[in-house]
Design goal:
Mean pLDDT: 92
Structural class: alpha+beta
Low-confidence stretches: none
Number of strands: 9
Helix content: 25-40%
Number of helices: 3
Largest sheet: 5 strands, antiparallel
Strand content: 35-45%
Shape: elongated
Distance between the termini: 25 Å
Amino acid sequence: MAVSPVLVIKTDDSVVGVRARLYDDFSEHKIVLNSVLTYWWANNMPPATKFLELFDSVIKRTINEIMPHKMLDLKYEVKANQILDNASEIEINLISVVADDVGFKIDGGLFSLSGIRKVEEDFESQDISVTYEHSIETPDIVLKKYKEMKN
């Protein structure tokens, strides 16, 4: 019986943790929300959009550390109280994670973030729900380094 790799997402009010496990190997990274939100606010960046970009990157890095791979396919649904650039609340449902055709079991893939906009502006309510599917490629030079680290 083959053992499936596992991706665990843990959240609280200030941290989103991403942990990947395969057999006895694991890697874990945390997104400290206060730090990144403060930076995004100071630079007038849309927090919901930037969080999704960072979340993708953290998943990719975490999985690469235990299982170097060329392609990572992610699929998730995002619900928000506004278009993403204006959203102050988002709910993320991570549907599937596949690294080089190896699927990950997902634990804790449904979570939400609220109060991510510094100033609540008077936007007309526009609840949205969008499904994202995309592939992220690891550059060859980076893949080589992850493989060297693994060996």
